């Protein structure tokens, strides 16, 4: 069961969408809510225009901003405590992602709850995303709540009522997510739905060359049967009520997103390798695709080396 929930905030309505979710989980589990707001002077230090832009450090401006950050955080903590919840806040110094990662490890958090814009393509790479960058470093599971620029705390999605979709590919890496999925499902009171996606194999149609491909039906049927057996074995080790579904699609991410919609799941749980930057953009990531396109929240866990 959860003991410490971590919610990064920045004073915006977008980040505040995570607060009702954290409060609801805390009520069910008795967990403490730990808030953190990062004070990063480099984000608002002005630059003097000229042939070479020169940053101007204004001590009064920095101190004034830090005081505003502390006031915002104190008000948020007070709001949670007024609801009978155990909550604490900390103003951190430094760059956002690094400060959040270091603090979460010191606090030994069990679950981080934060919002994401769900940007895609070059916009995501150019603008950046605190949530996306944090995922490449987080050692505890992260629950991502969908947000939008004009969101308010009152618009926040409730806790999941549908099953928690757990994506498994047969590897120990993907299975490392299961204990965290079980903990989350138990905390919010939803069943698990195990999902395996079979991607059809294709064989060249000689002598026409690699441009002409033919689906290997026999291999596909064998893999589908093997995946169903695998999910059955995993389901047998999980709580009663756990379901399983096997689907076939050329895109794993697309299959997961579409199934989430048709089965009305409450959230999607996946393991991620936590690639970052251009490597992530060029190689792609099922988790990244799901985060960008799913309309449901996503529970993400990054297994450590050897998991």
Characterise this structure.
The structure is a single chain. The protein is an alpha/beta fold and 307 residues long. The chain folds into two domains: 1-156, HUPs (Rossmann fold, 3-Layer(aba) Sandwich), CATH 3.40.50.620; 160-307, Rossmann fold. 41% of the residues lie in helices and 22% in strands. The chain contains twelve helices and 14 strands. It has helices at 13-16, 18-29, 59-81, 96-107, 121-127, 130-135, 172-175, 178-188, 217-236, 252-262, 277-283, 286-293; strands at 4-8, 32-39, 47-48, 54-55, 87-93, 111-116, 142-146, 164-167, 192-198, 202-204, 213-215, 243-248, 267-271, 298-301. The strands form three sheets. The chain has a ten-stranded mixed sheet, sandwiched between helices. A two-stranded antiparallel ribbon has the order 3-4. The chain has a two-stranded antiparallel ribbon with strand order 10-11. The longest helix is centred in the N-terminal third of the chain and has 23 residues, at 59-81. It is elongated. It starts with a strand and ends in a 6-residue tail after the last strand.
Q: Order of strands across the widest beta sheet? A: 5-2-1-6-7-14-13-8-9-12
Main beta sheet:
10 strands, mixed
What would you call the structural class?
alpha/beta
- Shape estimate: elongated
CATH superfamily of the largest domain: HUPs
End-to-end separation in angstroms reads: 21 Å
Number of strands: 14
CATH topology of the largest domain: Rossmann fold
Helical region count? Answer: 12
Q: Approximately what portion of the residues adopt beta-strand conformation?
A: 15-25%
What low-confidence regions span 5 or more consecutive residues with pLDDT below 50? 119-128, 149-156, 277-284
Could you tell me the mean pLDDT? 83
CATH architecture classification name of the largest domain:
3-Layer(aba) Sandwich
As an assembly, this protein is single chain
